[in-house]
Amino acid sequence: MRTSNLALTILAMIIQGCGNAPPHEPVAQPRDTGPAWQSLFDGKDLDHWKTVGTAHWRVDSGDILGTQDGDPSRAGLLVTKDLFKNFELTLDFNIDEHGKYNSGVYLRNDADAQGQTGYQVNIGRGVVGEYCGGLYRKGWLAKGDVNDAIRKPNAWNTLHIIADGPHILVDLNGARVVDFTDPNPEPKLLEAGAISLQTYGAEGHPGWVRFRNVKIRELPGGPGSQPSEK
């Protein structure tokens, strides 16, 4: 009996000791190991860009300004020197309020093309059929801000674009306006291409568009970006 009592006492001490053991150290939460944002415009110069076409692009008051400089026949693109495949892109824009005058952001575009070869996220006035944030490729794939209720006229607006293979997401001023997956994309639409900003005269009107805070980052695990031939 003494032996049994001694064994029980020892067992109780062991259990009590386990109960008083210090807790395990908390498991460290993984840090955000995704790629960092890359600025494509520092408010001073257009070193990350080249121009294609006859439109005029310049830095004005810390913004990118695209205009026709009084000649509505002018049109063209401001094109990134680097090519991007799967990415997240943010930018602010402000656009002239005139008729169907519009702009756009071309995704995976041919770096030397004067027009659209990839997907386009449109910038315009939905009330005249130029749906802001809408996705266009030989026709509307998704119309975005159809009623022009989210875009702020004569003010800065923010686009947040994610291009992940055939899946395109667009947020306008924090509101999701496009969630589209291309069911049968042409192979070239999924290849690395330039980000191109567009402007052209519409209805005989030389308009203007401004951009600022243009940033991009590769998607985690994606193929990333690559320099274009310069």
Named CATH architecture: Sandwich
Task: Supply the CATH superfamily name.
Answer: Exo-inulinase, domain 1
Named CATH topology: Jelly Rolls
Portion of residues in beta strands equals: 35-45%
Uncertain ranges: 6-32
The tally of domains stands at 1
List its traits.
230 residues; mainly beta; Jelly Rolls; 7-stranded antiparallel beta sheet; 1 helix; 8% helix
Folded structure, characterized:
The protein has 230 residues and is mainly beta. Helix content is 8%, strand content 41%. It has a single domain, classed as Exo-inulinase, domain 1 (Jelly Rolls, Sandwich), CATH 2.60.120. It has one helix and 17 strands. A hairpin with a 2-residue loop joins β12 and β13.
Quick synopsis:
The chain is built from one helix and 17 strands. With 230 residues, the protein is mostly beta strands.
Write the layout of secondary structure elements.
Layout: H1 2-19, E1 38-39, E2 49-53, E3 56-60, E4 63-67, E5 75-80, E6 82-84, E7 87-95, E8 103-109, E9 119-123, E10 135-136, E11 140-142, E12 157-164, E13 167-172, E14 175-181, E15 194-200, E16 208-218, E17 225-227
Antiparallel strand pairs: 1-16, 2-5, 3-4, 4-16, 5-15, 6-17, 7-12, 7-16, 8-9, 8-15, 9-10, 10-11, 12-13, 13-14
